[in-house]
Amino acid sequence: MNIGEAARRSGLPAKTIRYYEEIGLVHPDRRDNNYRDYGAHALEVLRFLRRSREFGFTIEQCRSLLTLYEDPTRCSSEVKHLASTRIVEIDDKIRELEALRESLGKLVHQCPGDRDPSCPIIDELAGTPLAHAAIAAMR
């Protein structure tokens, strides 16, 4: 099948499929006219990569998972280790996002939200509490 059909069946954009080929994650066959030809195995790999990326695995983690996927002698402990590492990364990101939400929430609470140009959100984004006043003074 051509790249358009592989994209439709795998749920990945053709551009992503080309990128995965470029970095050596997928290896389509080539027809006599040098067009890509995605067979059943390539489609399996593309679906595997799509799902792996949906779980947030990095490209390098996907490469490791794909190697394990294609190795019938793999140890599930290696797969479990990669997935457990991803869970730790997700937990770290959740904590980071919660702290970000709390900080932004405080700024939103502090902002009067009126017609006055004074805004603690802008001040924080500018990196100084008096940034807005300084900009106004320069005008």
TrEMBL record:
InterPro entries (alphabetical): CueR, DNA-bd_dom_put_sf, MerR-type_HTH_dom, MerR_fam
Residue ranges occupied by any HTH merR-type domain in the UniProt entry: 1-68
Pfam families recorded: MerR_1
Main location: cytoplasm
Compartment(s): Cytoplasm
Record keywords: Cytoplasm, DNA-binding, Transcription, Transcription regulation
Entry protein name: Cu(I)-responsive transcriptional regulator
Species this chain originates from: Inquilinus ginsengisoli
